[in-house]
Specification:
2 domains; two-stranded antiparallel ribbon; mainly alpha
Length: about 140
């Protein structure tokens, strides 16, 4: 998806034809909990997607040392309001939301990563832009 994401945003999201949602997958214990909470804390500042990209670009830093310190350092690098961000993370403000979303994913039988749902049609695994485009356009009636 990361390879197709920019084109999808440009051609479908910005035009209002598609809404892109992200659901957490808590398959790496505390590291998953912390990174997903950090992304939601960034979302409070309108920076969910940018922070998510920064997380992906810096994955290696999340696997060594204290993951909470790593996600806080990434927030500093992005010039987020760190007092707000850190308070959000320390309070675990979005923990219940994230756990609920992950539970719904499991209940729906979604186990493969990455998975993409387009109007109840699933695409499994990384896909090229043209595959997404074809499925989206078929749902839009093109």
């Amino acid at each position: 998806m990361l390879g197709s994401e920019q084109e999808l945003k440009e051609n479908f999201v910005k035009t209002g034809q598609v809404r892109m949602l992200f659901n957490p997958v808590l398959n790496h214990g505390n590291r998953s909990l912390q990174t997903h909470q950090a992304a939601e804390c960034a979302a409070e500042q309108g920076q969910f997607w940018a922070y998510r990209e920064h997380l992906f670009a810096n994955q290696g830093r999340l696997w060594s040392g204290d993951v909470r310190e790593a996600v806080k350092a990434l927030a500093v690098e992005m010039a987020l309001d760190t007092a707000s961000f850190n308070a959000c993370l320390d309070e675990q403000r979005h923990l219940a939301l994230i756990q609920g979303q992950d539970s719904r994913r499991i209940q729906r039988g979604i186990r493969f990563q990455p998975s993409f749902e387009i109007n109840e049609e699933f695409l499994l695994g990384s896909q090229p832009y043209d595959t997404f485009k074809q499925v989206i356009e078929s749902h839009l009636g093109f």
